[in-house]
Amino acid sequence: MIYILTFFILLVLILLIAYSYPVRRIPFQHIYAKVPEETRKSLHTFRKSRELQGVDVDGKTWNYISVGRGDDTVVLLHGMGGAGDIWWQVIEALKDQFRMICPTYPPVETLDGLRRGISEILEREQVSVFHAVGSSLGGYLCQYLVSRHPDRIKKAVFANTFPPNEIIAQKTQKMGKILPFLPEWAVMLYLRQSATTSIYPASGNSELVLAYMMEQSHGMMTKKQFIARYRCVIDSFEPPEPEMPILIIEADNDPLVEEGLRKMLKATYPSAAIKTLHKAGHFPYLNRPEEYTRILLDFFRS
């Protein structure tokens, strides 16, 4: 009996240690060491010079960036593994022509919860109509915003994303059930493995893409945020029939949005303009920012 009790106590201690083991943060200069110096300095300067705004919605604190000037406002929506500043190169390129608002999602588990947060930010910033640009989860959220607020969105960009579907939920069902029970370091390890084995090579081995993903998984993003964003990805809604201009940006080698989902997206919005990037991966606004910005600017001006 004493041996069983001892084994049980040891098992509990091991589990406690495993769950309490912290996610180790890595200094900026170290994690971005292989990124070209000019790009590294640009991101560092951007973060130092752009003060985050904050607003509380439904008990959650939303941080966001609001910069730029111009008659039109562009709302930039990031994906699962990102934050508002992931768009910094696009912001820097367009800030003299547009007002730019870029939120970072707190752990909100529904698309409508994300919508309420964005609506509160826009109300605070006194923005009534805007262009919406979303990538990955952000592109999915962008579709939801179009379905709920078609009168407020002038033009919309659905980038590296997917339409409402059952495929993702079915393929990730087991993972979705396991995630809440894993310690935070294990969830972040999963994200790092995905970054190094698929996202990084698909980006043309972009050191910036890899460094940003590593930074997110080393303390910039929490387990709660990751799980909440996953649940938003599988949150369902009826796709809209938009009357405003729509642009779909896709990459022909996107490792996170398979070809079948890309075809479904284009079939869901048959009137949308299509821009297909060759071997650009899942984060072309990071590893191909000049080309990406030019595409957005042409679309907004057309």
Largest sheet: 8 strands, mixed
CATH topological fold name = Rossmann fold
Number of helices: 14
CATH class: Alpha Beta
From N to C, what is the helix and strand string?
HHHEEEHEHEHEHHHHHEHEHH
End-to-end separation in angstroms reads 78 Å
Helical fraction: 40-55%
Low-confidence stretches: 5-18
Characterise the protein shown here.
With 302 residues, this protein is of the alpha/beta class. The protein has one domain: Alpha/Beta hydrolase fold, catalytic domain (Rossmann fold, 3-Layer(aba) Sandwich). The protein contains 14 helices and 8 strands. It has an 8-stranded mixed beta sheet with strand order 1-2-4-3-5-6-7-8, with helices on both faces. Helix 6 (137-148) links the parallel strand 5 (130-135) and strand 6. The radius of gyration is 20 Å and the shape is globular. The chain starts with a helix and ends with a helix. The model is unreliable at 5-18 (pLDDT under 50).
Structure summarized in a few sentences:
This protein is α/β, with parallel strands linked by helices and 302 residues long. It has helices spanning 2-20, 28-31, 37-49, 88-94, 111-124, 137-148, 167-171, 173-178, 184-202, 207-220, 223-233, 259-268, 284-287, 289-301, and strands spanning 53-57, 60-68, 73-77, 99-104, 130-135, 153-159, 246-251, 273-277.
